[in-house]
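Section 5.1 Outputs to date
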Amino acid sequence: MPRGDKSAYSDKQKRKAEHIEEGYEHRGVGKKEAERRAWATVNKESGGGEKSGSGRGKSENHSASRKGGRLGGQASASRPAAARSASARKSAATRKRHESR
């Protein structure tokens, strides 16, 4: 099998990689980089392509996905309340200014 051949992956793994890739592209990551990251994520979670046969499967590890989700608002939460409030006032003023255009 040549490098990059996806025939060893299950349909579920292919769907998962496609979904992850779309998410990266939506956030502005380039097509090739999004695909690379998506397959790296699938490999990390499921251990690579799945082999056929009874009892050969392994459970998936979603710890990296969970960690990313938990860390999402940590930067904002660690800022003092006054700084968050000032930022909210500034963004509200910007929205109001843009609305009047």
